[in-house]
Write a structure and sequence with these properties.
By secondary structure, the protein is α/β, with parallel strands linked by helices. The chain is built from 8 helices and 10 strands.
Length: 237
């Protein structure tokens, strides 16, 4: 469902990513890990078509995101890091605008708006301007728009950023349940989150993949996983 084929991105002489290749099959929840500046967000932007690769290609559900953008977008829900929102809109008007831009039928849009409002716990701020919401609530609005059209593939860049512990637990439970029917690629800095929801880990460092395997191979508890992370990324424990 997600295919990265030799993705490289160059900015002059600087290589943000180099020959990144992997696939994520249907129904898998996969963690995408790495230190800051390793190339995680750049890779995710290329996978979703928000950034054109210097080399290589990306496919969602078999559709090339560069040449078959609309078909790929129908299958994809994307939560970018610090996702852009229209601050003067409310969650209700923003989600309606997003659904109409996707040409969702009116009745289907109403049903999905009610669903994501409940799943992302937006009831208390449904009619408030997004610009007046906390970072945590803005993150939930971003998650709601990613889920709105019921996509088969979710690419989530730091989905629990800015959330309190109770909200983090709720998002983890939601991702775990979504993984039963959808394909999820999840970027996070929180290793406990990986243990909680992900069956596979892809680790990137300096723009290259340095590990790809089952979560258990990185360690069965937080300390062991942290040590392995340090070893693979060349950091000092």
């Amino acid at each position: 469902m997600i295919e990265a084929c030799g993705l490289s991105k160059f900015y002059g002489d600087f290589a943000a990513t180099q020959n990144v290749s992997f696939t994520v099959p249907a129904g898998q929840v996969c963690a995408f890990l790495g230190p800051n500046g390793a190339g995680k967000s750049t890779t995710m932007k290329m996978l979703t078509g928000f950034l054109a690769p210097s080399e290589g290609s990306a496919r969602i559900g078999g559709f090339d995101v560069a040449t078959e953008r609309l078909q790929a977008a129908e299958l994809l829900g994307y939560l970018p890091e610090n996702g852009p929102l229209y601050l003067e809109m409310t969650p209700e008007t923003f989600l309606r605008y997003t659904g109409e831009a996707r040409m969702m039928p009116p009745e289907r849009l109403r049903e999905r708006m009610a669903f994501v409002a409940e799943q992302c716990a937006l009831g208390d701020v449904w009619g408030k301007a997004i610009g007046k919401l906390s970072r945590g609530y803005r993150q939930r609005v971003g998650m709601a728009q990613a889920l709105l059209h019921d996509p088969d593939v979710l690419i989530l860049d730091e989905p629990t950023s800015g959330l309190d512990p109770n909200q983090v637990r709720g998002v983890r439970d939601l991702i775990r349940s979504l993984g039963e029917t959808k394909t999820v690629l999840l970027s996070t800095h929180i290793l406990q989150e990986v243990h909680a929801v992900c069956g596979r880990v892809i680790l990137i460092n300096d723009g290259r993949i340095v590990f790809d395997g089952p979560t258990e191979e990185l360690g069965t508890e937080g300390t062991a996983m942290e040590q392995k992370f340090h070893e693979l990324t060349g950091a000092v424990a």
